[in-house]
């Protein structure tokens, strides 16, 4: 795969000096148009062998273009906090918003390659990470991100020569570390592993661009021209009128019986029994949160449900059992303008808890397959592919020790109407009812279908849905607490 990057590509100085001013002007024009339209972001990955000009290229891009519209992130060894989060977390946070260019010096490819070379990652584990990366990049492509992946290459002999040259020059000696020479001693293995990774991740959506790194003029013009070409192609492209999803089609039941229709929403549960069991379950939850093994886990509790189904009350019964320093509640409303400039999962990526912490989402990433689907806030292709993207996301969370519990609180249409009227009549509860709540009632049947599809596609063995019959608030709160405790106990045993 690297043969074409070992044949001695060169650009003479005269040609370079002639072409650079023209290229820089065109890049700036494209950059400002990108900002003005803010229809997509550009993410540039800079990877490759040591000494091949990666750092020089990053600096050059900031020199040639307006650095105010470029975010540059260089990744070193992960911090303690990053080690407690999913592997992709620190890269999720580094994504540039629409209208800007993000340059990632090192990327989600670096650690898997290095770990495989050092023997810390077995081949099946590497292939699993490769699969996760392909899914992630596919999601970015579908979200409109222009992702450019550059691999800077040198042959073994040329890398050795380059490292020696840098070491001899007092001005560049600092660039060569003991780690660089240690990596060089494993050049052949690095090359084999890198080639495998690049071959498996060079897709139609996001191909790799291999650049020979020996000649700085060739390297610089190659990156600059390809960057310009790809940005211009995207800016000048006609918008696609039809988007086709590769997700499996939804097949409604021929008898029209839907999942929520099967629930017995009216459950008997007395206030006396509720108070007794509530105290016992809250104590049980508190002890679990202080268990020594809990330090190796986090809890992510997701609450969805009909309006007025009792999500807030159930959440308060959970938090009452926890140390206030240990949990956070994330209420989810319509995305802000900043959030709209990122992939839809971005605003949830930022709130993933560290180990020994609990995050409670009052509404969640499932809005894409619920309200956004029903209200037409996104295209069908977007919410159809979201099922698999959500499953991938939750799988990454659980792989890092997160315990995910997901609740859908269901009430009848009649019970909802009763609670709406009660809220309107009580002054301190009036804030809980809005015009949007009344409007959502008009699409009750659409939401019933959407919930059924959501559960069918995203209730997995690692993150299953719990359907809560919530006409009786006492019953619902006890079921939720009991389910939460059992989920934590299962992981701690």
Verbal overview:
The protein is an alpha/beta fold and 493 residues long. It has two domains: 3-236, Rossmann fold (3-Layer(aba) Sandwich); 259-492, P-loop containing nucleotide triphosphate hydrolases (Rossmann fold), CATH 3.40.50. It is built from 20 helices and ten strands. The chain has a five-stranded parallel β-sheet with strand order 2-3-1-4-5, sandwiched between helices. The protein is elongated and about 85 Å long. The two termini are 48 Å apart.
Structure summary:
The chain is an alpha/beta fold and 493 residues long. The protein has two domains: 3-236, P-loop containing nucleotide triphosphate hydrolases (Rossmann fold); 259-492, P-loop containing nucleotide triphosphate hydrolases (Rossmann fold, 3-Layer(aba) Sandwich), CATH 3.40.50.
Regarding quaternary structure, how should these chains be classified?
single chain
Shape: elongated
* Portion in helices: 40-55%
State the order of secondary-structure elements, H for helix, E for strand. HEHEHHEHHEHHHEHHEHEHHEHHEHHHEH
